[in-house]
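Exercise 7. Given the components listed, write out the predicted structure of the assembled complex. Treat all entries as one system.
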Amino acid sequence: MEENINMTAERSLEIITEQIAQSRRAVSKRTGQSLYISGLCTMGMAVVVPIINLLLKTTLGHLLWFALPFIILFVLRTTDKDQEHAPINFVGNLVGKTWVTFGIFGLGFFTLSIVWNSILIHSVTDPMAFVAHRVNFSPIIFLLMGMAVAMTGHILKSKWLVWFGIIASMVIAIGSYAGVGEMILARCGAPLQMVAWSNSFLPCVSVFVFALFGLLLPGWMLKKQK
Amino acid sequence: MFKPLDPLLHSELRLAIVSLLIGAEEAEFPYIKEQTGATAGNLSVQIDKLSAAGYIEVEKTFKGKKPCTVCRITSTGLKAFEDYVEALKSYLDVK
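Answer.
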């Protein structure tokens, strides 16, 4: 592009349109890459956690979720080196802040619930009292995750993502609250021990589905956008 | 009646730089160079002109050990761009 001051109004308009479009494309690609990597890491963690839980016959594997934000940040920083010159803009920032907010709320609520449940299990003798007063955090986390997906959809102007976030989070949250997963396992003739340990892997299945449709797929779509 | 066009923006490269920064919060020098296809020397001169007019803000930092120049549009630049587009409409007969 040369220093041309005798350009026509049409050429001016063409430059403005072209540059704004180019800038938007670059930002969309960068946002897409972040969503894609976050989705991949979350899906990977949703596979690792139940494997650890089932191998060690515990639910402590869920503590690995705390490492997820750091893993995502590390992978993003490593891959970002290839695209160090990509610009940032309002849309990219907004999507990032939506997911960071979800991360803070989700992990914060998860931590407080674990602390409360641990205190409760050591202070009550009646198992029914524990069941009645424990915090079932999965439905709340699914609702928060659905909100993050729906907000991402609004920001990226993707209606299907908005509706997916709303419908999927509500269905999964209600299903999780009512113990539909455990009922299905029991109906399918799964061993009683497996049904009892379902808390170690069922939430991970929902997280996997959310990450696939809420992070990986929109990220891939943005990355491939022409 | 044709409105006067801002001479600072009515240049291919300077207009491209400002248009690029409109769509992004900030952009690094190599990105602007890549998108506009300008030479580093020419781009540097035009960025200095826009910066001197207060249309853009230039920040020289370091990314690791590498020097990094980041450009941002200012409110003056945004106003000048809006006025330029308004003036452009009178030439294009757009209401």
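Discussion: Chain A is about 80% helix and 0% strand. The mean pLDDT of chain A is 83.
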